[in-house]
Amino acid sequence: MERFSQDMPLLEGDDFFKNLDMMEQDFLIEGDIQDYDEDGEMELPSEEDETIVESPDYPDTPDERLSKQEQLRMMHLRSHLNQITEKVKHHQYMTDKTRDELKQCRSKIMELEAERNETRDELQNQTSDGNQSAIYRLRATHDRLSQEILDERQIEKLILERLEKEEYELNKVEVERGKFLLAEDELVKREDRLAKEKTDLAIRRLRKEEKKAAQAERNLRNQHRTHYEIMREKQRLQDQLAENAKQSSEKHSKFVSDTMHKLKQRQEEENKRYQENMTKKMDMLLKLKSDIQANRDNLKALRARDKAAERREEEKLEQVRQKILEEGGNPDQILLIQKRISDVQRQKSNFESEQREKQAALMEKILIEEERMKRRKQQQPLLWADPNREKTKMIGPQKKKPLKTFQEYTRLTGEGTDLSIDLHDSMDDQEKYDGEKMQGEDRGDITLPEQPVRDEQSSDSSDGDDNDENAVDLAKPEFEGLWDHHKPYTMPKDLDASPLKLPGASKMDKAIMDEVLEKHRAGIVIKQVAAGREFKGCPFYSKPDVIHFKDFDVGKTYKKKVTLTNVSYTVNYCKYIDITERLKDFINIHFDPPGQMSAGLTCEVLVTFKPMINEDLEGEVKFLSQTGPFSIPLKCTTKKCDLSVDTDVIQFGTTVIDETLKRTFTLTNKGALGTTFEFFKVTGSKAKTATSAQTSLGRMTEDVTTSQAVTPAQDGEDRTKKEAQDQPEKGEMKPDNGVAMDTEGQTGEEGQQEADVPDQADGIEGGLSPDIQVSEYDDYGTLDGMKVGPISTGEIPPFSSTKLEIIWNPSVPGKADVEFLVRFTDPLSESISIRALGSAIDVPVWVERQSVDLKICLLDRLYQDTIIVNNRATTALRLKFEVCKELRNHLELLPKTGYIQAQSQFSAQLKFLPRASLFEEGGRYFDKETGVLEAPMTIRVADQTAPVPFTVSAVVTNSDMEFDVQDIDFGCCTIYESNKTTIKLTNKSILPQEFGFVGHPDYVEVQPNDGFGTLLPLETIELDVIFSPKKARDFKFELNCKSIINREFKIQCKGVGVYPPLELSNQVIHFAATSLYDVSTASLHVVNSHTSMNEFTHPVPRIGKGEIAPVGPTSFEFVVPKGAPVTISPSVGTIQPGEKCRVEVRFAPTLNEADVVKEAIRMATRQMELQAEKEYQEAMKRQKEAEESLKSAPAAGGKKGAPAAAKGAPTKGKATPGNTMLTVSGPSPVSPPKPEDITKDSTAYASAVGSLLRHFRGKFQSLTVPCYVASGETTNPGELPYSIHNTLYVELHCPTVKPSLVVISDSGKTTTHFGDVSLGQNIFKSVTIQNISSKTVELSSSVLDTNGPFQVVNAFRVLPPDATHTMLLSFTPSAGRVFQEVLSVHCETGSLHVTLMGKGVSPLVSLSPNVAENGVMDMGSVLAGEYLEKTFKMQNTSSLSIKYSIKLESLSLLRHAHAQELPKFLAGKSNTLVGVQNNNGHNVFDLVPAEGCIEPGGSVEITATFSPDHASDLYSDGVKIELFGKEESQSFQIKGTGKSKIMFIEGGDPLKPDLESLAVKLTPHIEEEDLKLILPPVLVTLRSTALEDSFVPATRDIYVGCVRTMAVSQKKELKPGYRNGEFTFENIQSITQKGFNIDPQKGMVEAGVLKPVTITWTPPQGFIQNEVCETSVVVTLKGDVAEQFRILLRAMVVSK
């Protein structure tokens, strides 16, 4: 409103109208005012208009109408009048508001004056009393109030001045308004006239529109008619065309059906073929999937096995470590020694293995040499001198006949069983075989070769043997021999291999027989001489020479026949002796001795072989002949590979570069075992990986990387090293350093396995195992152009061959000498090396740069380079430049065709313009991910086959920069705040790019560097976009980011400016540096400045362009973040318009609880470690003293000392070089406490706080606290219906510093608890504080409550650095409650707050047993004139001695005052517990002892006595137990009943009030007989619940009791005082008919017992529910006297 008044000032009277005339000159319109229609076109008058528009109220001439000038004057006048009215309202509101402020100010002054007067009076009173502390406090209060009164007086003065000014302005505006009263009346009339004119004009226009609508409707009908005719014509033409089409379809239908049949058949064939293809593909995919899954399972199993092995090794190592620790040793030292010992043993084993290999090689050479010499001697015996040779030429003496004993022995044993064994030779052979066996075991797989044989023949079955025998043509003998009829020889049962046992022979006879047999065996071999020529050599020839079972399978049986031919000079014998010991388990020899054989005769031996192991076996079958022993070699060989190639050198000859040649060679496997081969190039290649040949669980998979070329020689060396390293280690190396090792549990098989583990590891590192094969190679030596053909790996079956191919495509001129290698997975097959030779010559045309690198190129940018072509030929050549088809839109070579002269150069221009389509058109030459372009370019030379290629390479990148968002919505932001949004800008190019944000509005800011910077390749940076609206409206703008090449990248942004209804006086609060556990406060104001909704005079609170916030009370709520050390008070409030509210912000920094717990655990662990170290040192000291005492003790002698030492207990640990046994291995391990065990009340927690306080270095924390704003009154906290867009924020800067003062007493606890203190007792405690700062501080404290129980006894003083001060505090409770107060110790830099706690104890007592259930103690029933006693215990449950007193309410002084109250049956309730009392004045109830003292934890027995003097059921009294004469601890009511007779009835409905009248009852004179007829009644009301079709029986109980009496009866009683009673219900049948039932109907009641009697009523059949059933029954009680009662039964039916 104020802004409007400044733009158009108010004018008074004629000045206003003069100004109005001047403004009208700008709006003058020449000529008459014409009427315009809605479309803005001039509407000319017509005859129709004149005839139609006839309105008597409308002016006929333009002069009678209001002109535009008059309307403009009316508008200005109305605006001026409205302005004056608004100003009157504004000044009226300000005047009323100022008057209210003046009234409030005066009322506040009156309140302050009254408070000052009260303070002055109290000050005078305290001055008279001499209370100095109160005087100082009251004087300060008086001065403060006086100052506030003066301030309010000044404010009152200012308000009066403002009120006078506002009243003056109000009167001034009202006068101005009075000048325009007449003009306003005239204006109202003119406005009504103008409205009427506008209404008439609207009616006229409406009539015109109706006329035009009628004309339009006629036009529309004409259009519909025309459209209908056109549609009829179209329908006729369509019908005609349909008829023609039908005729054509019938004509051609037969041809169409044939065509459709063919198409359908063809489609079915295509679908069938497609289904078959898809089925094949699916099968292939399923197979591939299953293979992949199987491989994954294998890999998982391998990984699991490896992990399990590692885990077992770790567990085993950990067990050993734990075992050593348990024994008290040092596991690290012992394990290190074991490792070194194992290393020494492995080295020793390797050395011994190498020695055995060398010895085996040497022995092998010696045996070969001996065998060669032996063979030469056999073949050429005349070259060596033989002394026996001369003897054979001499005629010896005639042989004597054998002894009779020998003849008898020969007769018994037979000629075929002569022991013709040369024992000496047999022993030599056996020793030789054993030596070979042992030597073979020492060498592992190395076996010594046997004697070479002439021809080896083998077969796998008996068929092969038959073929061999048939191939031999033997001469048929002239006569039939005895061997044709010979039966197989069987050994007699009574004979065995042992010497002959003669029946009944003595020892001497046996000895003689043994000597004879020895002589016979020594002379059984004789020399054979024929025609003066001695036979030498093998007497029998075997066919085959070597029994060879070749390529056998385990589990099968093989048989082979061997033919032995006598090749000696004369008759000879042959006997099977034995077979090599190693072959006895697999070889079975079947041989029938033929007896005497002439020269040239043969016999057969059947050899059966059943292999059980898959190993090569060698041995011999031993025979004995007359001329000496001989043997047949026997071999059993497994299936093996026999691999070879037809050539090892391949010649390619001479060729031109870029031409391709192919050569093949054949790889043949002549063995019975198949294998897998790998054919790769060796020259210029390096081994990439070595993987296992198989991936089964039984194989081992490992990766081996090498950087050297693999050659056959190296391969053989690696295999030799591998075999050498795989030799098992034997023997153990004992440590010689004097350290005793515990080797238990490491012997046997486990120890052997552990010893083999390092050897296996070394074997794996040293070379490839037989299961490992080279699977892949990196061919980096491709310059020679040679490579392996399509078949590089495969499997070669047994007895088959395959062809391998080598391809040569030379690219560099020169000679090529390349080596290839064929490697096999069979570990026993050596690799085969193939050598390829060739020579290449160069082409005449060449390019200087084979690769043209254009570096990094941007899209849509042109790049050029020059291509230089050279010609080394002597003639000119035509060139043609070609670009690949995919890149022709991006690359260009100019010229495309040219001629290059002889011995010269040619230059071509290369143009590269990469476009965005390169990513789709680049194909295989362009990598979309990396942007690398490698374009092959070709130069075609005439008459030249090979083109000249070169490559153009470039890295193509774009110049894009990308935002992570496309739109930014800042949301709603108040004008006092700024919204920050972080965006990410990414450089998609691999080149750095500069960028900058330009052209953004002033309320938007981009940081850092104001939105300018440089992006590195592929870099992403974060930018902060800050939105700071200045006013409330909707903002929509765009951020423009430009790159250095002038590319623009835009982001659309929007936001809403919010003007909140409230504002904060401070947006940021800076707290002073606050010590830990100290408090700092600051304040701010929340202001409600929204007093008017006029948006033209000033900005109004609103959200964007939304509704204006209403003027009125506005609420706020501060929400502090969880865990923040800040509190705000008040956090919720309501502010009226134009007012403000003060808000206090409190900052109380503390330590993080997790850090405190962590520090407590660390301190506790450190303390336990120190304690363990201390105990360890003490144990070491005691042990050292014990050792010294043992050394100093005199020795008792060698023999006496040994047993004493043996009796000692074995010591644990390790033996040191000084023979000192350590029984203590080290400090015992400690286990830190658990975090949950550290509580805030524990000592460890307080100590940790103190430690952290001393080492605290300071911290700065910034917090943002939201303040939610809502219109209206305040609701419950947390339920404010606020709008999130009006939220205000206050930022708190909270610096935290190290405190100057800390508490060092009681483990650093700042809470001093005095515990439970009895009332009036004074307790003292001390608190010690320390100055941990580097400055001297002066101490002071806050004032404690002068009426409280806490007090500081001593004074404070100046405290230097690291000094301490002890405060003495006292606690004197005055009431039984908990007291708590905070004592603040101040210094210059902070305050220390000490919490004082204590409890004033008012001791309590408890009653046991719980005699006062529900606050009532029932004494029971007793006869009038007698008494009854009960006891209970009162126990002191506190730690203090208690003085108690028991008081009865009947003896209270207030009893008569309580007696004046209305009785309970009138008032409904009663405050007194006192009932009927004795008439004789004595107490009905008495409790003894009534006073006393109970020690802590003690108890006292109280006896309660009930003695009524007359019969009544209303005896009661109140009991109070007071402690220390002040507090009431227990209170309850005690009651009892007095009876006149021992039998009584209780229960039923009450028939009289529960109050006994003290008036004298007048008893009328009644005859004794009539008195007997009057029975005392007992009313029992029963209510049965009615259901739909039945009734619920009603049940009630009455009780029949018997009182214990002290009177002595004449009858015999069971016990004194115990008298039983009886009761009987009479005339039960009368009530049974009405549905009543009583159980029991009679019975006996023991003394002191209440027996229940149950009365049940079930409505009889036909009972009317609205009636009441009444009857009675008489019960007779028999006790000391017989007495009758009438039981009145009343029953009714009620609804549920």
What do these coordinates show?
The structure is a single chain. With 1696 residues, the protein is α+β, with helices and mostly antiparallel strands. 30% of the residues lie in helices and 31% in strands. Strand 10 and strand 11 (628-638) form a beta hairpin. The chain starts with a helix and ends with a strand.
Q: Assess the beta-strand content as a share of residues.
A: 25-35%
The rough form would be described as extended
Distance between the termini: 75 Å
Poorly predicted runs are 1-14, 20-60, 395-406, 412-501, 686-781, 1195-1222, 1608-1617
Counting copies of identical and different chains, the oligomeric state is: single chain
Element layout with pairings:
Blueprint: H1 2-7, H2 14-24, H3 47-52, H4 68-129, H5 132-178, H6 181-326, H7 331-379, H8 387-393, H9 404-413, H10 423-443, E1 457-458, H11 462-471, H12 507-523, E2 529-530, E3 533-534, E4 540-543, E5 547-552, E6 558-566, E7 574-579, E8 587-591, E9 602-609, E10 617-625, E11 628-638, E12 643-645, E13 649-656, E14 661-669, E15 675-681, E16 685-692, H13 712-725, H14 748-766, E17 772-779, E18 786-788, E19 793-796, E20 800-808, E21 814-824, E22 832-841, E23 845-847, E24 851-858, E25 863-871, E26 877-883, E27 891-894, E28 897-900, E29 905-912, H15 918-921, E30 932-941, E31 948-957, E32 961-963, E33 967-974, E34 979-987, E35 993-998, E36 1004-1007, E37 1012-1015, E38 1020-1027, E39 1034-1043, E40 1048-1059, E41 1063-1064, E42 1068-1070, E43 1074-1075, E44 1080-1087, E45 1102-1103, E46 1114-1118, E47 1126-1129, E48 1132-1135, E49 1140-1147, H16 1153-1192, H17 1198-1207, H18 1243-1254, E50 1259-1271, E51 1288-1297, E52 1301-1303, E53 1311-1318, E54 1323-1331, E55 1337-1338, E56 1340-1341, E57 1350-1352, E58 1358-1359, E59 1364-1371, E60 1378-1386, E61 1391-1401, E62 1405-1408, ...
Parallel strand pairs: 1-5, 5-11, 13-22, 24-31, 33-40, 42-51, 43-51, 53-61, 63-70, 72-80
Antiparallel strand pairs: 2-3, 4-6, 6-9, 7-10, 8-9, 10-11, 12-14, 14-20, 15-19, 15-21, 16-17, 18-20, 21-22, 23-25, 25-29, 26-28, 26-30, 27-29, 30-31, 32-34, 34-38, 35-37, 35-39, 36-38, 39-40, 40-45, 41-44, 44-49, 46-48, 46-50, 47-49, 50-51, 52-54, 54-59, 55-58, 56-60, 57-59, 60-61, 62-64, 64-68, ...
Helix pairs in contact: 4-5, 4-6, 6-7, 13-14, 16-18
